[in-house]
Q: What sequence folds into this?
């Protein structure tokens, strides 16, 4: 639902991040952890103990200089100007200077672990973990989990180290100012799950995956330190924030629900930031499906249906859901994990000025517009409602800041209004923060600027 900001990230991150890290690749260690029931790797796996593989990278980063380069690039764009640019600068540079006065060294780990994925079978998944380190004894650091927005393509994901990954600049800047950052890959991406189709907008699957990533990271931060796996005088203090934009916001809400059922031990969650989250799947998002107007990201609807197919494979069999031409011309690009650019080009060619719902078969179209008229329609309605995330349980004594632009063209602002209206009946610690007017893709920048400030104020 949002673009990957190729034009923004390739220039800044390719130079600042990957060139520094690639020179340290090839450093691989194993850590045995008798208490890690969900962590393992295929080499030397022991059912009773579990083990963990991590590729470690390290390097020095000057956070202030780094963000100055990012800001310089943003300032050249038409979207981030004037007061809006100054607000972003204040939220990032000035906050960093007030909270952290010295440069922070970083360790970079790609961790692999077993997730009890909602399909009922254990799957190996990946995450990237950036850890600040220092020789100053007893200096503490918190942890932020950043759930990624919409990814498409076989070369995307955190552990591919691809500069198209939009959350990189936020993650690196947070880590450079003394915050450990977890970037879960989620099923279907990275090196371990290439054969799996991403369970897009599948609340249960994404919630479980995200929860297992958090559990693995916390176990690594505590056990690896205790076992002398890495030399770091800094200590993980247990404080945690959870955040995500777009699909990442949806995943963050799904994670809240999973943590209510199955908490991760040893952490104190302080802040949750669901940003531009498509929380009202059965309402506001379905209205996008049904709209006669051209939708800016038309891949969203077929991606959803393909992501939900495993929930109800009979009802949502792709051969039943899509019309014959779309099935033959476009669906294979999804299944083969083609690039986002190729996919959007093909869908635009197919749709022209037609609305999104013309991708569907006549039967599926009737389900969408007239659910009460058929058993299939009611089954689809129930599935959509099952994946609604606006009514997830709140976590006790945890602040929730909902961020969204009222002019979002992909995820209507009504999603966050409904989420806020429902959550404020359950907690007094919920706030709706209205971002500047802009598209879904560009409001991403404002959202993470505010998020950085909120995270630093709450955790540091």
A:
């Amino acid at each position: 639902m949002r673009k990957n900001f190729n034009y923004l990230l390739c220039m800044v991150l390719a130079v600042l991040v990957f060139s520094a890290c690639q020179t340290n690749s090839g450093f691989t260690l194993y850590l045995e952890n008798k208490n890690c029931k969900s962590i393992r790797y295929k080499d030397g796996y022991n059912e009773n103990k579990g083990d963990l593989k991590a590729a470690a990278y390290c390097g020095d980063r000057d956070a202030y200089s780094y963000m100055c380069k990012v800001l310089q690039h943003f300032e050249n764009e038409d979207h981030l100007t004037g007061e809006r640019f100054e607000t972003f600068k204040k939220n990032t540079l000035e906050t960093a200077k007030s909270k952290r006065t010295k440069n922070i060294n970083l360790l970079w780990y790609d961790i692999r672990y077993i997730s009890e994925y909602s399909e009922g079978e254990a799957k190996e998944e990946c995450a990237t973990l950036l850890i600040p380190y220092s020789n100053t004894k007893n200096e503490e650091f918190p942890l932020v989990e950043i759930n990624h927005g919409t990814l498409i393509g076989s070369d995307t994901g955190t552990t591919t180290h691809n500069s198209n990954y939009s959350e990189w600049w936020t993650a690196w800047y947070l880590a450079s100012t003394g915050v450990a950052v977890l970037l879960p890959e989620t099923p279907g991406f990275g090196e371990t799950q290439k054969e799996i189709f991403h369970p897009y907008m599948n609340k249960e699957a994404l919630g479980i995956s995200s929860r297992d990533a958090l559990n693995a990271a916390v176990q690594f931060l505590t056990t690896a330190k205790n076992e002398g796996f890495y030399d770091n005088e800094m200590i993980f203090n247990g404080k945690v924030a959870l955040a995500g934009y777009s699909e990442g916001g949806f995943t963050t809400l799904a994670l809240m629900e999973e943590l209510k059922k199955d908490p991760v031990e040893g952490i104190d969650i302080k802040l949750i930031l669901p940003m531009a989250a498509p929380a009202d799947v059965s309402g506001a998002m379905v209205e996008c499906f049904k709209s006669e107007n051209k939708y800016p990201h038309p891949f969203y609807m077929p991606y959803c249906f393909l992501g939900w197919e495993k929930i109800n494979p009979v009802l949502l069999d792709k051969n039943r859901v899509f019309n014959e031409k779309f099935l033959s011309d476009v669906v294979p690009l999804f299944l083969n994990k083609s690039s986002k650019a190729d996919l959007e080009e093909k869908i635009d060619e197919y749709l022209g000025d037609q609305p999104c719902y013309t991708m569907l078969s006549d039967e599926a179209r009737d389900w969408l517009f007239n659910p009460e008229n058929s058993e299939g329609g009611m089954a689809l309605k129930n599935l959509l409602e099952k994946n609604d995330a606006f009514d997830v349980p709140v976590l006790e004594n945890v602040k929730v800041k909902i961020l969204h632009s009222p002019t979002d063209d992909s995820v209507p602002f009504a999603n966050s209004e409904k989420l806020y209206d429902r959550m404020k009946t359950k907690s007094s610690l919920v706030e709706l923060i209205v971002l500047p007017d802009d598209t879904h893709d560009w409001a991403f920048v404002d959202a993470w600027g505010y998020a950085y400030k909120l995270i630093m104020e709450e955790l540091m």
In short: The chain has a mean pLDDT of 79. The first helix runs from residue 6 to 22. DSSP finds 16 helices and ten strands in the chain.
